[in-house]
Please model this.
Amino acid sequence: MQPETMNSVGSAQGNVDISGVALSKSLMDFFGSLTLLILLSPFMLCIALAVKLGSRGPIFYSEIRQGLNGVGFPMMKFRTMVPNASAMQKDVENEVDGPMFKCTDDPRITGVGGFLRGWSLDELPQLINVLRGEMSLVGPRPLPDEQMEGHPTWKQTRLSVKPGLTGLWQIQARDSDKFSDWVKYDTEYVRHWSIALDIKILFLTIGAVIGRRGAR
Model:
């Protein structure tokens, strides 16, 4: 998290060593993502093989998302949909409001993709984004620029920090269909960020994934 971003957080929480908390978050992101990539690399290799054998198309899916201060980066995921999924989206009914898009029985999702999404395993390649410094382990989820248009205050708030692999919304309202909840928890995270909150979110994410809350 950049020092200029942390100033507002520091003022809300009292006297905070800005450089210290920023460095702590950066170190946690780097060593955390590196450790997880090393430990999970055999498992991720098996997932890659399953994706390749399960359906036609590439192993990974990459899309430009907006990072810190609106700088775009290619966010990585294991591919969970058919190759022409974007062209098919107009024929799929969106079950939630706002810029979110969710469909319980999305016909574009492959058999392997459905399993990966159910356990959030498709997100594991984003550990590479974290290692490269484009994302953090915890923060607002990265979105394309067009999905934030029309909500300038929310956009400015969430782009003032690095996007995260998981976040407050994922543990508090992952099964919510309300866009207002997304805005609420993104804003709350940025305003009250701390290393302790990040660690708490990481541990609670494990429970949310195991319980498959809001998995689609």
In short: The radius of gyration is 17 Å.
